[in-house]
Design goal:
Elements: H1 27-33, E1 41-43, E2 49-51, H2 56-71, H3 87-103, E3 116-120, H4 127-136, E4 139-144, H5 147-158, E5 167-171, E6 189-194, H6 202-216, H7 226-229, H8 232-235, H9 240-252, E7 259-266, H10 272-281, E8 286-294, E9 297-305, H11 309-324
Parallel strand pairs: 3-4, 3-6, 4-5, 6-7
Antiparallel strand pairs: 1-2, 7-9, 8-9
C-alpha cells in the first residue's frame, strides 16, 4: 500500500484558537467514534498512522468521522462527484465570522437561534451549517442551484433529528442570481457565508485537481477521479472566483438593509484588488479582510457591510431584545 508524499507528519498550523482541529488527527479516537474509518488507516511506522489523502473514499470517511466526533452529526454522506471539503478549514471560517459578529456586539460573540446565517452555495455536504449550528447554535438557511445537492443536504438533516428546524434549504431557480430568490428583502440575516467556485473553466479545474493528486501520491496520476474534486458548479464558473465575487458584491447592494455582514472566502489573494474596487463602487460602509491559514495553505474571508456603526448597534440591540423575549 502506498504512503503519503507530504501530509503524514506535517501538523496543521495557524488555525483559529477555537478551532477543534489543532495539531494532527487522532485517528484512533476517530475510529472509536466512527469504525467505518478503520479500513482506510495506513500505518507508517510503529507510532504514526495516516490515510491516503489521494483516495476520495478515504477523505470522505475522514470527514464523516470528524463531523460525528466533533459536531455530533450522524450518517453524513455525499453523492458521487460532489465536493468533499476539508473540515478544519470550514470550521475556521465559522470561528472567524463569529469574531466578526462580536465586533458588532461589544466584543461578545452572539449565540443562539436569534442569529440567522445564509449559506450561499451550501452544497451537498452542508458543512458550514453543521459546524455553525453546533458551535454557536445559529440558525442556517442553505441555498444552492443544484437540486441534488439540496436533496442530499436535507437527508443529512433528516438523519439528525436534533437539527430539525435549525437548518433549512432553498433551491435557487436562477443560476445568475446570488441573493435574489435566496433571501427576501423583508428578512433579516446577520451573516452570509460563501465558498465561491474558484476556477474559470472545467479544464482549469481538472488541471488543478491533477496537480493536487500528484502532490499527494507516489504514483503519477494522469486522470482526474471525478468524485474527488466536486461538481462543475462547485468548482468553476465563467470568470472563476474573481468574477463570482465581483457579481456577489454588486448584487449584495440590493439587500443592503437585509443583512448585517456579507462575507465570502477568497482563495486567491490577487482577487482582492478587484473586490475592493467593487466594494468602493457599491459604497460599502466597512470592509474587513480576515486572514486564515492551515499548514502551507493561506486564504482569507472578505466581509463587508452597508450599515454604519450606529445601525450595527441598533441591529444588535434588536437581536438582544429577541433573546430576552
Amino acid at each position: 500500500m502506498k504512503h503519503q508524499k507530504k501530509r503524514n507528519s506535517k501538523e496543521k498550523s495557524k488555525l483559529h484558537p477555537r478551532n477543534k482541529h489543532q495539531g494532527r488527527y487522532d485517528l484512533k479516537e476517530l475510529c472509536n467514534t466512527c469504525p467505518d474509518l478503520e479500513p482506510f488507516i495506513i500505518s507508517l511506522d510503529e507510532y504514526n498512522e495516516t490515510i491516503d489523502f489521494a483516495d476520495s473514499n478515504a477523505v470522505k470517511m475522514l470527514n464523516k468521522a470528524l463531523l460525528e466526533h466533533y459536531y455530533g452529526v450522524k450518517n453524513w454522506s455525499i453523492p458521487e462527484n460532489y465536493l468533499c471539503p476539508p473540515i478544519p478549514g470550514r470550521a475556521d471560517y465559522i470561528h472567524h465570522i463569529a469574531d466578526l459578529l462580536a465586533s458588532s456586539n461589544q466584543g461578545l460573540i452572539p449565540k443562539g437561534k436569534h442569529i440567522k446565517v445564509l449559506d450561499v452555495g451550501v452544497g451537498a455536504n452542508c458543512v458550514y451549517p453543521l459546524i455553525g449550528n453546533h458551535e454557536y447554535e445559529w440558525l442556517f438557511t442553505g441555498v444552492d442551484v443544484d437540486a441534488v445537492a439540496i436533496q442530499n443536504a436535507e437527508q443529512i438533516i433528516e438523519a439528525n433529528p436534533h437539527l430539525k428546524g435549525k437548518i433549512k434549504f432553498r433551491l435557487q431557480a436562477n443560476v445568475k442570481d446570488i441573493f435574489k430568490g435566496a433571501m427576501e428583502k423583508t428578512e433579516r440575516f446577520d451573516l452570509t457565508v460563501c465558498n465561491p467556485p474558484f476556477y474559470a473553466s472545467l479544464e482549469e479545474a481538472k488541471n488543478a485537481t491533477l496537480k493536487k493528486l500528484n502532490n499527494l501520491s507516489d504514483e503519477k496520476v494522469t486522470q482526474v477521479k471525478q468524485n474527488f474534486g466536486g461538481q462543475n458548479r462547485e468548482l468553476w464558473c465563467h470568470g472563476g472566483e474573481n468574477k463570482f465575487v465581483y457579481e456577489m458584491i454588486h448584487q449584495s447592494k440590493e439587500f443592503a438593509n437585509s443583512c448585517l455582514w456579507f462575507s465570502t472566502l477568497i482563495s486567491n489573494k490577487a482577487h482582492l484588488k478587484n473586490a475592493y474596487a467593487q466594494l468602493e463602487k457599491m459604497e460599502a460602509a466597512a470592509v474587513k479582510t480576515l486572514p486564515m491559514g492551515q499548514g502551507n495553505k493561506i486564504s482569507r474571508v472578505l466581509a463587508w457591510t452597508f450599515l454604519n456603526p450606529e445601525q450595527h448597534k441598533k441591529w444588535m440591540s434588536k437581536e438582544a431584545a429577541t433573546v430576552k423575549s
